[in-house]
Amino acid sequence: MLIPLDLLLYVLFLGFWLEGGPDRAAAPLPAAALATAACLLPAWAAAWAAARAACRRWRGPAPALAAWRGRLETAARLLTLAFSVLALEAGRLPAALAPGGGPAAVAWGLAPYLIAYGLVWTGLHAAFARLEALAGAAVPAGRLASLLRRSRYGLCFALLWLPLAAAAEGLGRWGHPGLAWPAAALLAWASPALLVRLWGCRPLGPGPLAEAVADLEARAGTRFSRLYEWPLGDGRALNAAAMGFAPPFRYLLLTPGLVRRLPPDELDAVVAHELGHARRHHQLAIALAGLIALAAVLGALAWLPAAPLAGRALAAGAAVAALVRWGLGWGLRRFERQADLHALKIAGDPEPLVSALERIAAAAGASRSAPSWHHYGVHERASFLRRAAADPSLAARHDRRADALRNAAFGLACLIAGWMAGRGALDALRPTEGEAGPARRPAAVRPEPGWPDGGARAHGRRLATLFPDKADPAGPDGGPPEPGPDGP
């Protein structure tokens, strides 16, 4: 996943903290730095203890590597999130280094997370090194090399979010906060160009592989802008990915291990699967669904009664985690199945993709029956593909449902964007405090029978009694001011 859940939750907590948490009387910088260090240093010890405990349990034959890797990664994310939040709240480093707020406070607010990330992952290095050795993969020589390799993928969201947050803060101070959303869309559109360089990908030139991909693109009715060699896991991993929402930043990434170990028909099936994602615009739909879920959580919190920072952050974090795990995960599994069906349509036979999925799962040490949060298990995917090959109506029904889900995400995103644009336009037209608005005629007063002036003077007295601070100094009927109980 491009956006680690622990980093997303920390960014959410940081936003609440910067916006209006507890009193931020800035402590002296040495005291803030000391408190931050005291909260972060135990993170390495906790990660080291978790690694030792995990290594002691690996006895006898090699364990299910994917399951153990998932448990360790979950433990690492929980430790990173817990210690970084504790360090931010106890040390209050942004308040000490950037008391005026702004982009500097956002940047310093990320520092506790980045430090905790480095400490936790270096503490878990021994456990992950043993997992890599059991899988037959190359293990980096030291903890620093391993951390740098992992940071290229785990922290790429921070590298994208930080300039966007700084730009949004600057645009807000200049009086143009609405421009932050077009800036975010532009950054998301062009982000693949940055990520392929950050990950060390190399363009694939002309050759048999490029010709095979071009033939599949012609049959699928869509195309990638460029092909890249993806050095995931030092090139030993078996993986492929479609990146980007639209040309010219729509890329296909293939690891050398995948190209080397898969026969041509299986490799074609994997490429057809990724072409299915691109043709159906799954990446854009998932990105919009994630933004809709985040906006729904923040909007719901805005309508709730005021609560302490910890309560709001905990409620927001739990809601976001649940929506990602069960909401986005549910949609991703349907999109993955639709991409499988696209590969079946291109190949005309389910067996090449089934064989490729089994080979990839075996290389990763994953179980055939165990699903992930965004993929069905290999056994379930293979069973569905074979049933769809025997009954084409099954594939047609699933395509209709998946397309309806995608169109719903597009439509809801358009409605939210239109509502925000309209609200921004109204806010821009509304006069600010101290600015004179357009002159308004006073409301007409209905005459009251039995009063010589139609009741206008009595009506003015009633208004002055109810709203003394709004009383007209010129008198209720526009004449000279009326004397009060203590004189004029």
Which characteristics define this entry?
488 residues; mainly alpha; four-stranded mixed β-sheet; globular; disordered C terminus
What fraction of the residues are assigned to beta strands by DSSP?
A: under 5%
Structural class call reads mainly alpha
Order of helices and strands: HHHHHHHHHEHEEEHHHHHHHH
Please tell me the overall pLDDT.
79
Taking the alpha carbons of the first and last residues, their distance comes to 75 Å
Number of helices: 18
* Morphology call: globular
Radius of gyration: 30 Å
What is the strand arrangement across the widest sheet? 1-2-4-3
Q: Biggest β-sheet: count, sense, barrel?
A: 4 strands, mixed
Low-confidence stretches: 440-456, 476-482, 484-488
**What's the number of extended β-strand segments?**
4
Percent range for helical residues? Answer: 55-70%
Would you write up a description of this structure?
The structure is a single chain. This protein is mostly helical and 488 residues long. Helices cover 68% and strands 3% of the residues. A four-stranded mixed beta sheet has the order 1-2-4-3, sandwiched between helices. α3 packs across α5, α3 packs antiparallel against α6 and α5 crosses α7. The relative contact order is 0.07. The C terminus is likely disordered.
